[in-house]
Design goal:
electron transport, 4Fe-4S, iron-sulfur, alpha+beta, 14% strand, single chain, Alpha-Beta Plaits, two-stranded antiparallel ribbon, two-stranded antiparallel sheet
Length: 86
Amino acid sequence: MALKITEECINCDVCEPECPNEAISQGDEIYVIDPDKCTECVGHYDEPQCQQVCPVDCIIPDPDHRETKEQLLEKYKRLMAAKAKA
């Protein structure tokens, strides 16, 4: 499933550059994760990099975007194919 950033976010700026899919961006008040781009780093790393660097542990699975590892891998493949065409 995609991840999401909770209200506990302190806008420390460490998660955004860690995302290999560029799914994290600054929202109105806190950082946000685009569920269409988030693969939980499947295809890139063994663990979600944003969760690894977050100092307040405010990045959690998004219950509104449940996906299996296989679905995340398919999303990764689509994102890489689209990036290759750009």
